[in-house]
Amino acid sequence: MFKDAGNQTYFWSGFSGVLAWLSDQNNLMILSLVIGIVTALVNAYSKCYEGRAARRAEEREEELHALKVQALKRGLRDEAGKD
Predict the structure, then answer these.
(1) Ramachandran region of residue 75, left (φ > 0), alpha (ψ -120 to 50) or beta?
(2) CB burial string 55-74: b at 16+ within 10 A, e below
């Protein structure tokens, strides 16, 4: 990429343009605000996903417990206790 002098010019001009854009405090504030909003949205989605997974795991445990209780009521031996 840097073998051609034209590419170097475009790269360094773009880099200095980004630095100049960031030197304006309003742009830096907006960029920080956008990063904060994106981070909050990702965190909220992650918490919702973890909550759904935890509820589903709890439902599975309750279902297994109910099946075990039914089996014990019918007089079958406890399969978990034979370790």
Answers:
(1) left
(2) eeeeeeeeeeeeeeeeeeee
Contact criterion met (CB below 8 Å) for 2 and 11: yes
Q: What is the DSSP string of 27-78?
A: HHHHHHHHHHHHHHHHHHHHHHHHHHHHHHHHHHHHHHHHHHHHHHHTT---
Using one digit for the tens of pLDDT, what is the confidence trace for 5-43?
A: 777 778 888 888 888 887 888 878 888 889 999 999 999
Q: Residue 3 carries which DSSP code?
A: T
Q: 68: which 2 tokens?
A: 């075990």
